[in-house]
Design a protein that fits this description.
The protein has about 425 residues and is an alpha/beta fold. About 35% of the residues lie in helices and about 20% in strands. The strands form two sheets. Strands 9-10-5-11-4-1-3-2-16-17-18-15-12-14-13 form a 15-stranded mixed sheet, sandwiched between helices. A three-stranded antiparallel sheet has the order 6-7-8, with no helix packed on it. The protein starts with 13 loop residues before the first strand and ends with a helix.
């Protein structure tokens, strides 16, 4: 048993820090698929964690915080993970490298390296299952460069440069190098040699190319003894096997088992990504939905009560969708009037209060779209830890929140999931 006071154990293998909530569940889902019993905690937990856990993911909400705040919260999480005795540490960020020239990937990684006493780490956000690949240091979303994808319009972290060496170099004073696909694809021997050459040349970070899952597994083998790993959840594909080869992990299909949860179902969406907008539209073609609007909320209209009254008359018979998602031009108009941060915050706050109201109506199975929205909802529902189950789509599992009344949660990154994701998710738990 591991207590909040920090009693160290040797059972825990991997300690992870995720910069948003859906990123945490994405990573945890990958580890579960590899046979690791994984717990996601929301910040640093006050209660002991179960003693059958192989990996812990500390989910923070630091992706868009000021860099100094993101560093402080990440270091606090790292100190807790150190106390509970993890063998390896993972800093997880988005597979689209969401960040700005001021951070937060570089500043947080710098701070973690300093605290752990390491002088070299890889950076690999590739996640081929979700069409995120890195080639010659450039990040692709599907068959287009990151800078040409929908991410160029992201309201908080617009990504207008696809060259990850350039992007990360703007965020750190350390030197950023590249391990090209020609080295990755030739096998572990050349890859290990190339990584060593990059490090010996004075680089502290190496952007590592990866275009297939086999690439990610090859990279994982070579970094098995790295104390710190940074990247998207894709690079975690091979980490369970690393521990297995060392005799530290016996993978189990039971790693994805979750307790049964009854009750009603609903979907909340705050993401304005291309993928989520398509999912909202698909739902609306056959099912009921209610839209909240930041400008209407800002005028003082009580859309929270309106949404709950609307849902109350329907939800006993079928799931509902309540959303603040909108197209880029609508988001931009709201940001110009309210400010970028305020426009997002007002929607998050409303959806959080709606989540509480839905639970009061008997909802126990809730799909939430958007990293920031998921974080706000989880905090509002006082969920401190999540058991991680099987994947719905790559990177998105069902989870069960450990609270007085358990609740099943599917926390979806805005860019993830097929167009019918909402229906598919709820179909698995009906």
């Amino acid at each position: 048993m591991v207590g909040a006071g920090g009693l160290a154990v040797t059972k825990l293998l991997l300690g992870c820090i995720a910069d948003d909530f859906t990123g945490g569940t994405d990573l945890a889902s990958t580890l579960v698929r590899g046979g690791m019993r994984t717990l996601q905690v929301i910040g640093i937990p006050k209660e002991p964690i179960p003693d059958d856990i192989d990996a812990v993911v500390v989910a923070l909400k630091t992706r868009t915080l000021p860099a100094d705040e993101a560093v402080s919260e990440s270091l606090e999480a790292l100190e807790w993970l150190k106390k509970i005795g993890c063998r390896q540490y993972f800093f997880k960020y988005c597979s689209t490298f969401d960040s700005t020239p001021k951070g937060n990937i570089g500043p947080v990684a710098d701070a973690l390296m300093a605290s752990l006493g390491v002088d070299f780490a890889i950076a690999c956000p590739a996640f081929p299952d979700n069409k995120r690949t890195v080639y010659q240091g450039h990040l692709f979303v599907g068959d287009v460069l990151l800078s040409e994808s929908g991410m160029r319009h992201h309201p908080l972290t617009p990504m207008t440069d696809s060259n990850l060496v350039n992007v990360l170099q703007q965020q750190t004073r350390k030197k950023v190098g590249l391990v090209p696909h020609s080295a990755v694809s030739k096998g572990n021997g050349l890859l290990k040699k190339t990584l060593a050459q990059v490090k010996d040349s004075g680089y502290s970070y190496a952007i590592v190319d990866a275009v297939t899952d086999d690439d990610l597994r090859a990279i994982a083998v070579v970094i098995q003894d790295h104390l710190l790993v940074t990247g998207g959840s894709g690079i975690a594909l091979g980490l369970p096997d690393n521990f297995g080869r060392k005799g530290l992990l016996i993978g189990s299909e039971a790693a994805s088992e979750l307790p049964s949860v009854g009750g009603l179902s609903a979907v909340l969406s705050g993401s304005c990504s291309v993928a989520t907008n398509a999912q909202v539209a698909h739902w609306q073609s056959t099912r009921p939905s209610f839209q909240i609007d930041p400008l209407t909320l800002a005028k003082g209209e009580d859309q929270v009560t309106q949404a709950l009254e609307w849902a109350k008359s329907i939800i006993q018979n079928e799931p509902v969708l309540i959303y603040g998602s909108a197209k880029p031009e609508t988001v931009k108009a709201a940001q110009e009037l309210l400010g970028v941060e305020a426009a997002g915050q007002i929607v998050e706050d409303a959806l959080s209060r709606i989540a509480i109201g839905l639970v009061d109506l008997g909802v126990r199975k809730l799909v939430v779209a958007g990293g920031e929205t998921s974080g706000a909802v989880v905090k509002a529902l006082n969920v401190e830890a999540l058991r991680i189950g099987a994947s719905i789509d790559p990177g998105v599992p069902w989870t069960v929140g450990l609270r007085d009344v358990p609740i099943a949660l599917a926390l979806k990154s805005g860019n993830f999931g097929t167009v019918d994701f909402f229906e598919k998710a709820l179909g698995q738990v009906q």
